[in-house]
Structure formats: C-alpha cells, structure tokens
Amino acid sequence: PESSPTGPATETEAEGQAPKEAEKVSEEPGSGPLTTTTTTRSALQFPAPAASKFRPEDIQGAFKWLDTESKAQSVIDAAARVGADPLALAALIDYESAHTGSTSKKNPKSTARGLLQFTKSKGRPAIADWMEAQGIPPILYTDEQMAAMSFEEQMELMVVPYLEQTMKQRGAKALDTNQKLFMAVRLPSAMFIDPD
Fold first, then answer.
1. Which terminal Cβ of the chain has fewer Cβ within 10 Å, N or C?
2. What average pLDDT does range 152-161 have in this prediction?
3. Which pTM was predicted?
C-alpha cells in the first residue's frame, strides 16, 4: 500500500447500519464541495451510539487538536459505533493525521488524505462500498470535498463507515483492542494476528 506521513497508508473495506432515509446526493469529480438535495450529514445520519463511560471533558485536550467538546463528542460517538476506546481512536487519528487532526492533511508521497489518511485507491472506495451496502448513492470523495468537511463531518461520513466496512470484511464484531483498531487502518489482514 501507499504511505501516510507516518508509514503505510490506510487499507480497508467497511460496513454499517442503514440510515432511516437516504437523501439524493450528487457529485461530479473535481466539482468542489458535495451537494445534496438537503444535507449530506442527514443522508448518513447514524443512530445514537451505545452508552459510553466517556464524556467529552474526559478526552478533550488529550491531543492539541482535540480542543472542542464537539470534536471530543464525535470521537466518543464514533468509538461507541465500532466498539473502540475513544482515547485509542483519538490516538490513531493523531498518528494518521501527523498530529494535526486535520481533515485535509495530505501525505506528500501518496494520495492519502484526511483524519485516517484515506487513499484514492482503497480507503475512499471502501467508504463508497459501505454507502452502497446501505442503499446510499456511493460517493468517491475528492480531495476538495474532504478538505471542506469539518472534523465532525469527516468522522461521521468517512471514519465510521471506513471502520465499519473493515469490520465487516474482516469479521470483527468490535474494534475492542488497540491491535484491532490500529490494524483496521494500518493493515487489516493483521487484525487478528497474535502479536507474540
């Protein structure tokens, strides 16, 4: 696979739960921000995550970029969706985005971009596969669309679908260990390999 600023690029496939109603989403390559008949976020609205022992104030400030309650809550919600520890998910985002938490952070040596360094060849198609499985018109997000997303939008529209698709493809019920979580992004085929 290609390389992210800190190593091999994201490699995946993912799944998720169907939203109650998908809205019509249109996108033309290179046309700039995504347009929808209403809003993109509601097209992929997720059900409320399971109760978590974490509150935004528990993780806010753990990393320089994790500086708002809204960002902290989006990490907690995403972690609950995939059965991960919120601090481990925040650490993964920190690592993959070269300690920036930026939705537009680009690897200068590859097509990897965003919070989990989604590549054009594997990461973004995995999200489109997840969308298609949910009955949502698939989108291959462009660099411009990704850069225009807020942190919270990229968590909801890309991070969760990507991780859920990887879980589905690899038969994981949850990303409940650091190995499963990090390998889901770094090298999915190693999610269940005994590290010893």
1. C
2. 96
3. 0.73
